[in-house]
Every structure is written in C-alpha cells, then in structure tokens.
Amino acid sequence: MESIRVTHTFGPVFDEKSRILILGSFPSVKSREKQFYYGHPQNRFWKMLAGIAAAEPPETIEEKKEFLLGSRIAVWDVIESCEIEGSSDSSIRNVAANDMNLILRQAPIEKILCNGGKAYELFLKYCDAPWYPPVKKMPSTSPANASWKLERLIEEWGTELTGREQ
Description:
This protein has helices at residues 29-34, 45-53, 61-70, 101-104, 117-126, 150-162; strands spanning 4-7, 20-24, 73-77, 79-84, 93-97, 111-115, 135-138. The protein is an alpha/beta fold. A hairpin with an 8-residue loop joins strand 4 and strand 5.
C-alpha cells in the first residue's frame, strides 16, 4: 500500500464545560469517510463510553456530539496532517500536529487522555507543553487492540473519566 498525504477534515468537539480531552492519533479511513471520530464499526470507543455511562451508544454524529458535551468530554486528534498508509498508525510519517491551545485556551481541561500508545507518543513528541494538564496513555479502543476486551476498556477508561472504580 502506498503512503499518501492526508489532512484532517473535521474539527474538534468541545465547549466551555469540557473537562477531559481525549486525543486519538489520526482518523482512520472509515472515520474520514464518515467525517467523525471513531467511525469504524469495530472500534469500541462509543460502546465503551456508553458502557461507562450506562447508556445506549450514540448513533448519529449529532447524538455523539451531544453525548460528549453532556459528559464534559472533548475529542480531537494529535495530527492535523500526515503521510499514512490506509489507517495504519505505524505508517504515520511527516506529521503536522494540531494546536492543542485551540481547546486548552477555551475549555477548563483537567486531564488529557490519549487513546492508545501512538496518540500518546505523538502528543509527547509534537504537542506537550509544561503548562498543559496531566496527560495519560490509555488502552486503545481500536479493533487492532484485541487483547483488551470491551469490559476491561470500560473498567480502565471509566476510572479515569469518572474518578471512581467501575
């Protein structure tokens, strides 16, 4: 597969009440097609959040935005543009990062959670600043992270998102 330069084509989700920023690395092919975060049907992100909230998973983009904002969660990606082969995080090259200050200047973010090791690695390399809130690497909700079952993701992420054991 050939590497192509791709630019992120949809913006972050946040408002002035957002307290937790969840960062992915870069949208998958499916997410780019659907023009919203975690669009691959096998990605457990939305099922995980719904499990933590004891709610039905949101379906439409509007429902997903309402769910995030109602939960005081902001979502974005570390990368604004890069060269990538398909959806493979390991193929990411020549990164241009998003400016995290866009959110951090407008929302009282208390912590940053990176969805997977690659998002964490890229955040530390391209975005981190001493005045940013604490950042933590979380287990990826990607189907590629098959060793983490949904229940385990709910438990691990739930502790960070709610401040209490799930």
